[in-house]
Amino acid sequence: MEVDRRAFLATLGVGALERMSPEDKAEELEHYMIHMLEEEHAEEEAPLSEEELEEQEQERTARRGTGSLFTSTRELEPIPLNATLEDFFRLRFAPARHVLQSANHALQTGQPERTILACLLHDTVQNLIKVDHGYWGAQLFAPYVDERVSWGIQYHQALRFYPDESTGYEYPEMYNRIFGEDYVPEPYIAEAYKYCRAHKWYMESRLITVNDTYAFQDGVDVTIEPFIDIIGRHFKQPKEGLGNDNSPTAHMWRTMANPDRPL
Questions:
Q1: Is 161 within a domain?
Q2: What are 129's strand-pairing partners?
Q3: Is residue 132 part of a domain?
Q4: What is the mean pLDDT of the chain?
Q5: What is the CATH classification number for the domain harbouring 107?
Q6: Of 21, 96, 109, 99, which Cα lies nearest the Cα of 65?
Q7: Which domain holds residue 210?
Q8: Global pTM?
Q9: Rounded CA gap, 138 and 122, in Å?
């Protein structure tokens, strides 16, 4: 995916760039790219000028880390009482092109089903919250997946900033172009990488970043259908429905099901 540097920076708003940490800038770039991908097949409208983008940003009232469900004005269909993961993909995560492309690349290259599931889930929590999405995503799915899946989701956030020649993962050139050669991750990210790199489950997380690289492709549409059986084998679907099972993260699923509920 080609990113117009000037158009991207214009979305940050006047003076915002100077106040953002390197990690904030990288997070904002990923959110911007996912948004571009999600809007690829939306009804075509005339593109906004840089001035219009800046004006739009100045008028925005939501915090930057607010999840997509809370900044969108689209009408949401009710979530079924016994909601499944597939229901959330269809009614809350859709179109989810980025994670579907990521999981599809893992599937097409013959990677383990555990990795495919991790790729399918790794960024979906951004519908709830964008800040530290690796950690939030790990918590959201921990009660329902193999521990290695949630662990991998948590640490992919840090591994994005560190190359690994053995797996073919290079430092994203886009980071250099957007943020400059002196880009330095925050200390907690560096510590997370150091911990993860020495862990026996390192590859659980690294493979998410590898498949992430191929998940910003224009014109590539993937449906949830190829992953239904994998979900059935590796996702512990509660019989009460997600949000109604009294798990430690049931409240997070209820929040996504009912983002308009004030209390």
A1: yes
A2: 66
A3: yes
A4: 86
A5: 1.10.3210
A6: 21
A7: 66-257
A8: 0.78
A9: 8
